[in-house]
Design goal:
10 helices; rod-shaped; 56% helix; alpha+beta; Beta-Lactamase; single chain; 3 domains; Heat Shock Protein 90
Length: 477
């Protein structure tokens, strides 16, 4: 027997505007229906209570006046029944103590002389007055009212039968008027709900379009919402996110361009060194050694660049994820001397004096390898950019809840416009000189990320021609 794939159920798709409109119209419809039903039920009960009181009053008056004539069964009783029947707008019957009709205001011979088996009559003959409504297929709603008649000469009851058609007609007319008013209110509510849904969803539509623009790579698109409500704040947060993404994309493109540029130089040098060995005329052994030596230097430069890039990426990932450093109780004075020991041979080659101003001991909870890396980089830069015979000083003191560590030099200084860019990757104040000395342009960026991971920072003060001072702020813990 062949089988068929199950038919997909059709599911209507409603956007946010449609759901808001449908929800508001549904609530409005329920409220209007509840108001109409409550009003009609309340009015119906009020009308019936008024009718009940009216008929009981008329029946009691008829019983009071006609009691004497009922006991004697005088003909004047018929006049009383017709009179009160006209006043009450009802059919009035006088009954004796057995429940037999003595007089009918309608004068119907088929009724007079017959017992009336209504439960209201039985209660009235038992001494209780009351009324009740009944539904008949040909007459509609009818109210029966019966009250007892007490007289020394005999007892009986007065029975009123009144059609409730006027009440029904009044309620029906009122229901139509309320339906018209409710329909008008519903139409106005639908229009207002549509406008409100449009007002609410319009900024969300702008956000959706803006998100589509960002997804397509158009980072400059903004929603530019103003105000202080939730949607406006959402739009403002979206714009901030878009700005961050644009900056991130710009940084990524700059990074790719800078990395490509940095890699191009050593690769070009390696190619220039390798081509004579591969395709040129035979060369003397000393020349081969020189070319191989230069080629090895370029390979080492590429290695330092790749290692720096990997370390910088790792540190920035730690900053984003909040991964902690491996901190241990450390003597910063010992760490500082370890960093100085690595720089002393380079400084001695250029006759640069290193001046230390360190306390005997300064404990703090840090990552010692990271602090050595930061100080080594700052000292190396200070020595590299200080003329022969100059001075580089290193000082360290406690400063409140932080350690203040300063590296100063008597070098050429840094132009003011370059200071904000110092900690960006691949930035060099003097590109030609930095490449000549083997710099990758990543040292200060790595030092900055290491201090930010410690919860500290590095600040710079410099005067061109007089030297620079790098201040490292390290929290004690």
């Amino acid at each position: 027997m062949p089988t068929f794939p199950e038919a997909r159920r059709w599911r209507p798709h409603l956007g946010l505007r449609g759901r808001i409109l449908l929800g508001q119209v549904g609530v409005l419809l329920l409220v209007l229906a509840a108001i109409d039903a409550f009003t009609l039920i309340t009015l119906e009960r009020t009308y019936l209570q008024e009718r009940r009181i009216h008929y009981l009053t008329q029946a009691n008056m008829a019983a009071s006046i006609g009691g004497t004539y009922l006991a004697r069964k005088e003909p004047y009783l018929r006049y009383v029944a017709r009179e009160f029947g006209g006043q009450a707008g009802a059919r009035v019957l006088f009954l004796d103590a057995t429940g037999t009709v003595v007089v009918d205001s309608y004068g119907d011979p088929a009724v007079e002389g017959k017992r009336l088996p209504a439960p209201e009559v039985a209660e009235a003959l038992a001494g209780k007055q009351g009324s009740a409504t009944h539904r008949f297929s040909d007459l509609g709603w009818v109210m029966y009212t019966a009250v007892p008649v007490t007289h020394p000469a005999g007892e009986g009851a007065v029975f009123l039968s009144a059609s409730l058609a006027p009440v029904e007609e009044s309620l029906r007319a009122l229901a139509w008027r309320m339906a018209i008013l409710s329909a008008t209110a519903l139409a106005a509510g639908i229009a207002a709900s549509f406008l409100l849904a449009r007002v609410i969803t319009r900024p969300l539509s702008r956000l959706r379009r803006a998100a589509g623009e960002l997804a397509a790579g158009r980072w400059g698109h903004r929603v530019a919402m103003h105000g202080h409500d939730e949607i406006a704040r959402l739009g403002q947060a979206f714009d901030r996110m878009a700005e961050d993404l644009q900056q991130l994309d710009r940084t990524r493109r700059d990074f790719v361009a800078d990395a490509s540029h940095e890699l191009r130089t050593p690769l070009a040098a390696m190619r220039a060194l390798a081509e004579p060995m591969a395709h040129g005329q035979p060369l003397p052994a000393d020349t081969y050694r020189e070319l191989a030596k230069d080629l090895l230097a370029q390979v080492k430069r590429l290695q330092r660049l790749s290692e720096g890039l990997l370390e910088l990426a790792r540190l920035e990932n730690q900053l984003e994820t909040g991964a902690p450093l491996h901190r241990i109780p450390t003597d910063l004075t010992k760490v500082a001397r370890e960093a100085v020991d690595q720089i002393v041979p380079v400084a001695e080659q250029r006759s640069i004096q290193i001046i230390l101003d360190l306390p005997p001991r300064l404990p703090a909870t840090v990552d010692p390898e990271a602090i050595v890396r930061v100080l080594t980089n700052l000292l190396h830069n200070a020595v590299k950019y200080t003329p022969t015979g100059g001075q580089v000083s290193l000082s360290m003191r406690g400063h409140g809840d932080r350690v203040k560590l300063q590296v100063s030099d008597t070098g050429e200084g840094i132009p003011p416009d370059q200071i904000p860019l110092l900690f960006q990757r691949f930035h060099r104040v003097d590109r030609a000189r930095a490449r000549h000395t083997g710099g990758t342009g990543l040292g200060l960026a790595i030092a900055d990320r290491l201090m930010r991971l410690h919860g500290g920072e590095i600040t710079v003060e410099s005067t061109p021609g007089q030297g620079s001072t790098f201040t490292v702020w390290i929290p004690y813990s």
